[in-house]
# Entry
Amino acid sequence: MDEAKKNRIAAASTVAAVLLIVIFAVVIICQLATIVNINNEKRNLQEQIRSYDDLIKDSESELAYLKSWQYYLDMLSWYGYHPPKN
# Structure
């Protein structure tokens, strides 16, 4: 093999290796960007879940009041009815 052919093979190998490294770098960067976006979305969803859990807990106490006898008496007096005293 002559010197020119060796130089061309070496240059082609170098270009192929550099292109492979660049392609891998681009793939890794894209994957990292996707991972960051998914983690941000996961964090936002967990925050929403926490806020909905708090809302449910607050609503449960309100529901307990709405089912209570005291609420019934409050609504009766709100609408002007006062039960007779025995």
